[in-house]
Amino acid sequence: MSNRKDPAWKYGVEVGSGEQKGYKVIQCNFCDKILKGGVYRMKEHLAGVHGNAAPCTMVPPEVKDEIKAYIDKNDAAKKGHK
User: Fold this and answer.
1) In this structure, are residues 34 and 27 in contact, taking their beta carbons and an 8 Å threshold?
2) Nearest partner of 44 among 4, 11, 15, 80, judged by Cα
3) Average pLDDT of the chain?
4) Which of 20, 29, 38, 57 lies 20 to 30 Å from 47, alpha-carbon distance?
5) 14-50 pLDDT per residue, tens
6) How far apart (Å, rounded) are the C-alpha atoms in residues 12 and 63?
7) DSSP string covering 36-61
8) Which GO terms describe its molecular function (predicted)?
């Protein structure tokens, strides 16, 4: 089950799932790009971070900053638990 509390869900909609791999297929509300791989890939897309998704060229700066801060906070929390 997906974590619908993740802020990225405010900016995309699930349009399907990977039949064999179990990942989510999400469409960006800003540019309509279809992203295969789940909500983390959607966050990479919105934040414009280098990873597995092309950056969204239509995301508002405040949304980009919100998602980038969320990624950074979670990455820091994961490093603190190791």
Assistant:
1) yes
2) 11
3) 88
4) 20
5) 998 766 677 889 999 999 999 998 898 999 999 998 7
6) 12
7) ES-HHHHHHHHHT-SSSSPPPSS--H
8) DNA binding; zinc ion binding
